């Protein structure tokens, strides 16, 4: 359907003209999405299948939606195995027509660019796990330390994980019980440290919500370099990162979720904990390189 020599602009114009005549009154985006799905579902077995994954003759670059800095592009140093490719039929079987159609639509029908965008999305997803991992460990250690100090100050028995005064939510208590069970299944003692290590990012995210406002005066001490002690100052970027982390975990699209802004959130929260932490994270983080961001305007200030 689409000749290799045809540019994405020509493809877009040609497709739209034909599709508008065929289905008048339908939005251009809907028409392109339907055409992309139909194309993936009707690969002709009598023709030699086009293959994707090989380095193209010409480079391809494009701006990530919602960003003036980040771009996805193929570079000479990208992890591309020469000689390995997949046909359309393989791609739709392995990754589904519906999943791929969103990338093809975003690239205006340019199928080579769509595969590049898919690979770029996967690379950025993998890259984000390193800095998010550093932040997650930092949050659980600093927040749990504040809760431990509070527990001792109030003269309560056992540990804050036992919640003797029933201050945590039912969900939080359930998470703690599940974490302890997980530790025991590994044949270990469910100590405070082992249990804390099993609690998810979501557990710490919900500790700073409005429902647990009573804990905030103590939890605010985990962010000594925040510009103020308002709970929302911490909760809002942490909530965005929690949602973003879930998308990473489920291998969903992130190019349309402002990855550069989520990276900024990550650095901001890190800065609230310790002003030297953002630089430490960035020293080895692969994210800025992949996003191709100019981080000079994303500097974190206290």
Number of helices: 13
Low-confidence stretches: 1-12, 41-83, 293-302
Name the strands of the widest sheet in spatial order.
1-4
Number of strands: 4
Give Rg in angstroms.
24 Å
Can you describe what's shown?
With 302 residues, the protein is mostly helical. It has a domain at 8-121. The chain is built from 13 helices and four strands. It has helices spanning 8-22, 28-41, 88-95, 97-106, 111-153, 170-185, 192-198, 201-207, 216-219, 231-249, 259-273, 277-282, 287-291, and strands at 51-52, 61-63, 71-73, 86-87. Strands 1-4 form a two-stranded antiparallel ribbon. A two-stranded antiparallel sheet has the order 2-3. Helix 1 (8-22) packs across helix 2 (28-41). The longest helix has 43 residues, at 111-153. Mean pLDDT is 79; it is low at 1-12, 41-83 and 293-302.
List the helices and strands and how they pair.
Elements: H1 8-22, H2 28-41, E1 51-52, E2 61-63, E3 71-73, E4 86-87, H3 88-95, H4 97-106, H5 111-153, H6 170-185, H7 192-198, H8 201-207, H9 216-219, H10 231-249, H11 259-273, H12 277-282, H13 287-291
Antiparallel strand pairs: 1-4, 2-3
Question: Could you list some keywords that capture this structure?
Answer:
302 residues; mainly alpha; two-stranded antiparallel ribbon; 4 strands; 56% helix; elongated
């Amino acid at each position: 359907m689409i000749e290799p020599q045809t540019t994405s602009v020509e493809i877009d114009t040609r497709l739209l003209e034909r599709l508008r005549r065929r289905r008048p009154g339908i939005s251009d985006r809907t028409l392109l999405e339907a055409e992309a799905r139909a194309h993936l579902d009707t690969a002709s077995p009598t023709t030699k299948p086009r293959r994707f994954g090989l380095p193209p003759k010409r480079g391809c670059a494009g701006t990530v939606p919602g960003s003036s800095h980040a771009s996805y592009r193929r570079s000479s140093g990208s992890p591309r195995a020469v000689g390995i490719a997949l046909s359309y039929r393989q791609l739709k079987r392995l990754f589904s027509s519906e999943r791929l159609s969103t990338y093809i639509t975003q690239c205006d029908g340019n199928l080579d660019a769509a595969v590049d965008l898919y690979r770029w999305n996967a690379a950025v997803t993998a890259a984000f796990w390193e800095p998010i991992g550093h932040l997650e460990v930092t949050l659980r250690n600093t927040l749990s330390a504040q809760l431990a100090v509070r527990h001792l100050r109030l003269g309560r028995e056992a540990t804050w994980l036992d919640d003797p005064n029933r201050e945590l939510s039912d969900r939080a208590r359930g998470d703690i019980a599940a974490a302890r069970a997980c530790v025991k299944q590994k044949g270990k003692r469910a100590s405070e440290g082992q249990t804390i290590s099993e609690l998810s990012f979501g557990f710490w995210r919900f500790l700073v919500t409005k429902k647990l406002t009573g804990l905030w005066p103590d939890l605010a001490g985990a962010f000594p370099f925040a510009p103020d002690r308002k709970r929302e100052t911490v909760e809002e970027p942490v909530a965005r990162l929690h949602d973003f982390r879930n998308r990473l975990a489920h291998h969903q699209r992130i190019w349309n979720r402002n990855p550069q802004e989520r990276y900024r959130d990550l650095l901001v929260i890190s800065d609230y904990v310790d002003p030297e932490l953002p630089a430490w994270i960035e020293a080895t983080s692969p994210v800025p390189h992949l996003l191709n961001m100019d981080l000079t305007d994303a500097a974190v200030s206290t």
